[in-house]
């Protein structure tokens, strides 16, 4: 196994215990691997909750669980997926591992702060799941904690609120670390427009983490104070305003959607040039659009509240801004399609996941515009149409991108290759199952099937049964992904430094990287994606200087 799995710096020096070497390590690569392990453990727990709900919904009426249990499973699934997996996801895991490598740095700017972010994340996870261990019962509010129900419910919502606050603090510290690292630790010669596009995605995400996350932190503290001290901020019976909670929650949570997706967009922009064997089309427009999405994303929270009683003028403004944010997103998609045009496309497993994510996210984005229009949203807002749109964006988009990035950088992280056949079969199962799972929900929602309900009218049975079959295919495909990674780690052939013929800096060092990544800091006098006749144009010598 690679050296950094056995020897590394820790905050207390060298430890004899391998467990202590891991959990006290300040090596960004080890911290990233710790994140990956916990993130995907929680992901599969949330998938289990979703499968249980799908089994309950396979027929109308009560089948397996009671309504209160359904609400708790729904909350567990949402809180785990959003706050414990998706929000920290790509940035905390792949970002932690890859960012210094792409910048030509030996670590993040603040390694100990990085370790503190990890420990805060673990603390938040433990507190969030504590109610399950103690038997107190998980919260039943849904992942949005809408007031006044979150204030009045007898379920164990307090620990969930405290956990979300701590997770927000972890996110802020990670964002600060990334911003400083990108500004101060870029290799000599690497200006902002020589940075890889994954770095641009992480940079835009980091600013959202720093600027938007305090809003949700304050909001959660107010709910905690209202539950414990009885002050009336959101409870209308005490003079509070529940609409204020919605404003504060979505001022964070809609930028958080882009916090989730922008690193995924960066993964797409890394994978496409490598597996089309050509320079990416529109590098600068993709980079600038990432910053534009992060900026405009702060201004569109009100489209979640078209049915909440906000003024007609506010509705019009937020509807316009929702359509406006689609422009930089559309720029990315057209640039990606232009990169594919006449490229020498290699349908390796990472490329399949990325192509699938583009397809799914496009569907999610276009249906988002439908919901951004005032008239259709009044009819569709509280139906399964919104749930399908959300999952096409987050599961079909972000999670597909995440898994595609895991396949792409798997050789760099582990030093081994996985079985391509198993990888492609797993993708096929997940892609077909995903669309069978969620596309029928567009139809059910359009026909009026309300979301978040324990039961439904018999007329919607066929849509839920198709979704149930699709959910089973998705679960089988995800398990095959996990098995493929495990077998690759145990039996995979040696990957070498650059199995995909990539051009960014991480592909110019051994796989997996040594402890401090680079023996000498590179000098970057080249663009990140340079191909000529299908081959990488740039080669570096042993001193990381360009020789071709």
UniProtKB/TrEMBL annotation:
What Pfam families does the annotation carry? COX1 (PF00115)
Instruction: Look up and give the membrane topology term.
Output: Multi-pass membrane protein
Q: What class of enzyme is it?
A: oxidoreductase
GO MF annotation terms: cytochrome-c oxidase activity; heme binding; oxidoreductase activity
Is the keyword Iron in the record?
A: yes
Q: Which SUPFAM superfamilies match?
A: Cytochrome c oxidase subunit I-like
Reported EC number(s) for this entry are: 1.9.3.1
Q: Give TM regions.
A: 32-53, 73-103, 115-138, 158-180, 200-225, 249-269, 281-301, 313-331, 343-363, 383-404, 425-446, 466-486
Any one GO cellular component localisation term in the record = membrane
Q: Which UniProt keywords apply?
A: Electron transport, Heme, Iron, Membrane, Metal-binding, Oxidoreductase, Respiratory chain, Transmembrane, Transmembrane helix, Transport
**What domain of life does the UniProt record list for this protein's source?**
Bacteria
Which GO BP terms sit in this record? Answer: aerobic respiration; electron transport coupled proton transport; respiratory electron transport chain
Outline the extent of the Cytochrome oxidase subunit I profile domain: 16-525
Q: Where in the cell is it found?
A: Membrane
Q: Spell out the InterPro entries in the cross-references.
A: Cyt_c_oxase-like_su1_dom, Cyt_c_oxase-like_su1_sf, Cyt_C_Oxase_1, Cyt_c_Oxase_su1_BS
Q: Which family does it belong to?
A: Belongs to the heme-copper respiratory oxidase family.
Q: What is this protein called?
A: Cytochrome c oxidase polypeptide I
